User: Fold these one by one.
Assistant:
Number 1:
Amino acid sequence: MAKTRVITPEELEQQEPFKEQLRRFYEQRQPGVAPLAYIRTYGCQQNVADSERMKGQLAQIGFGFTDKPEEADFILFNTCAVREHAEDRVFGNVGALKALKRRRPEILIALCGCMVQQEHIAKKLYQSYPFVGLVFGTHVQHRLPELMVRTLVERRRVVEIPECDGVITEGIPAERDGTFKAFLPIMYGCNNFCTYCIVPYVRGRERSRDPEFIIAEAKELVRQGYREITLLGQNVNSYGKGEAHGVDFPELLKRLNAIPGDFLIRFMTSHPKDATPRLFDTIAACEKVSRHFHLPFQSGSSRVLREMNRGYTREQYLELIRYARKAVPGIAFTSDVIVGFPGEQREDFEETLSLIREVGFVSLFTFIYSPREGTPAAKMPDPITAEEKTAWFQELTALQESLSAERLQKLVGTEQRALLETDAGDYLEARLAENSVVRVQGDPARIGEYVTVRITSARSYIVTGDIVD
Ligand code: SAH
Ligand code: SF4
Ligand code: F3S
């Protein structure tokens, strides 16, 4: 296992002179006017959390933030590589900035994150997108000020994607997007090498933050009034493995649960091969831990699961679900599933459908397999046509829709605790602990509060209810 290297506050101090240089640079350019940054984040919550920390660094320099790229002095795309579609969107949206750069040559356009951590992508960007000034990978985000200085002050195009693995940065304040829901990374990287997945290559080896830092951050979030804290990692169930502190995921949950206050602890993602009966027993004993569990199964066929290198069989997955339902009454599951993995046959796909029927998920994130350069699955024979895969995908989505509708119908007449999340204009959206959204009438000033909702109707995905207190 790679040795974890914690970037300490002392090491972060080395960025201070660069921040000062940037302050002077922008002050000279436009005296008395704060520069503006536009940050666009693709991909998963991990990327959202990274962007919040990069925003923290920019705020320290004196940046303000805008959601209009044409107003910005600094444009940063934090990219995702998980499927081809994600990468295509980035290329398209970066291409669209060319005209802006021509009009305002002084702006700095930068790309970072998982997609650019791949060398062939970084090369393509450097060659084909000359208006992109700075490209940096997933292991050097704490050096953002230094990289900006090298690009802006020293007037060079910079590509920085070192393989320097095992980095954990502590001490960068997050500039959070939400005011009552917060992401809290507990670990980084992945060691599982599912054969279809690019994440281990672009995020490096698995490493866990020290529990002291996590608990301190959680306490601070609760103090600030956050109502939901989502713990993040590619496989939270292996939290702490290989680290000297000896705290594993169930133990971490217990310690977080012990923080006083009215808040909910969520987490994602859990890997079935590392979800243990002890984890479910812990959840049962921790009243602040959400009864919603995101547990990706990827395929219902043990043969395909083996080809995916997932480390469990269909039977083991179902056994885990049975145990969880016994240990934690009312637990609700969501999941991820891939359709059209190389070599998947109609029989395999039908096993996926039958698993979905058997478990009864609240909702599913469904993906058509997308080959990723450098992963073992990309080299496997894949005789099923794209049309066939699309047809299977639609069949699966239709099945889940009808199951979800049936499930939601059963909620009608019940009372549920929910967090008022969004003002949709005609109604407010409240999220149930199990992750479904309910439309209610209420005062937008109450957003961020917990309420009790009586569910009055459920038509396909649209659930409505009344606030009863
Ligand atoms: N670490 C998490 C998921 C990370 S990626 C886990 O193991 O569950 C999120 C989801 O994207 C995965 O669960 C998977 O369903 C999907 N995914 C990953 N690589 C993919 C690929 N090459 N093609 C299609 N879907 C993919
Ligand atoms: Fe990818 Fe598998 Fe790691 Fe999840 S566990 S990030 S799917 S390699
Ligand atoms: Fe995408 Fe990277 Fe997350 S590849 S899904 S942003 S870890």
Number 2:
Amino acid sequence: MPHSILFVCLGNICRSPMAEGAMRVVSEQREIEVIVDSAGTGAWHVGNPPDGRAQAAALANGVNISGQRARQISMRDFDRFDQVIAMDRSVLGDLDGLRPETAGGALSLFLDHVAGREGQDVVDPYYGEEDGFAIAWADVMAGANALLDKLERG
Ligand code: 4NP
């Protein structure tokens, strides 16, 4: 089975859909097989496409994420995925609380995988200015490449 990664944010309409989209294109370009999905800790936006500003930020970089639909994380996800990756420290704390003790998947903070960015959040752009989405896109691209570097090294 290919390695599987679940990206998690609060709403699953901004950061984790961008992370999923970035990971899909970068893994395809680098020819590294990986199963990718995303989810939110919250249920407010279940069934909705990504926020229009997130779609625009991705599309500005040639990536179409319009087909994604938000879903809430389920307990099974902690076993179904090799890695569950939180977009910020608050989400990481929530996931740590939810995660069954027997879960097989590893839990981590996304930017902990990026050299020099350890402990940092992919800042939630939802309530902020438009440029927050461009910053989030740059962060998820850096994270996707760093994760693939690690997978490639084995
Ligand atoms: P996300 O952004 O966690 O990156 O998808 C948010 C989207 C919606 C809300 C919060 C964050 N909300 O409170 O509705």
